[in-house]
Specification:
With 152 residues, the chain is an alpha+beta fold. It has 2 domains: 37 residues; 103 residues, GMP Synthetase, Chain A, domain 3 (2-Layer Sandwich). It has 5 helices and 5 strands, in the order ααββαββααβ. 18% of the residues are buried.
C-alpha cells in the first residue's frame, strides 16, 4: 500500500511539473507577444517626398555646420529651427538649400535661437529662395525680401 501511495505521489508530482512547465511557456509566449508587437506599416497617405525632404535638408544643414536643428517639411512650408553657432552668417544659403530640397513649398521659415534663447524668425517665398540659389537675384535683393520678426 505504501508503494501505491509513493507511485501516486510521484505521478502527481510529474503532472504538477508538466502543468507548471506548460504555464511557464504560455507566460513566456504572452510576454513576447506583448513586447514584440509588429511595427505598423506607414499609412498609404503618408507623403514619402516630404519625409525624404526632411532627411535631405537635415543632412545639408549638417554640411553647413548646423547640428542643433529641427526640420519640418510640409506641403506648404519648410520650417527650420536652429541654435545659431557663434559667427554663423549663412542664412541665405540655408534658405536656398531648403528651397532646392523642397521646391513645391510656398515659403521657407527660419526660427533662429542664440544660446537656446529665441532670437528671430525669417520667412521668405520659396520661389525667391530658388532664384537666389540659381544666381538670378543678388544676396542683397534676396535678404530684402525676408520678413523678419522677433521670435518669442
Amino acid at each position: 500500500m505504501a508503494d501505491l501511495q509513493t507511485k501516486n505521489t510521484q505521478g502527481a508530482g510529474k503532472v504538477l511539473i508538466a502543468v507548471l512547465a506548460v504555464a511557464g511557456v504560455l507566460v513566456i509566449v504572452a510576454l513576447l507577444a506583448y513586447f514584440l508587437k509588429p511595427v505598423a506599416a506607414p499609412s498609404p497617405d503618408t507623403d514619402v517626398e516630404v519625409k525624404e525632404a526632411n532627411s535631405l535638408i537635415l543632412s545639408d544643414l549638417r554640411d553647413l555646420g548646423l547640428t542643433d536643428v529641427l526640420v519640418d517639411v510640409t506641403d506648404e512650408q519648410v520650417l527650420i529651427r536652429f541654435n545659431e553657432p557663434q559667427g554663423f552668417a549663412n542664412r541665405s544659403a540655408v534658405m536656398a538649400m531648403a528651397a532646392s530640397d523642397a521646391p513645391w513649398t510656398q515659403y521657407i521659415m527660419l526660427q533662429v535661437f542664440s544660446n537656446y534663447q529665441p532670437k528671430e524668425q525669417l520667412i521668405v517665398n520659396t520661389s525667391l529662395a530658388l532664384e537666389y540659389g540659381n544666381g538670378q537675384i543678388s544676396e542683397g535683393d534676396f535678404s530684402e525680401a525676408w520678413a523678419v520678426s522677433p521670435l518669442q
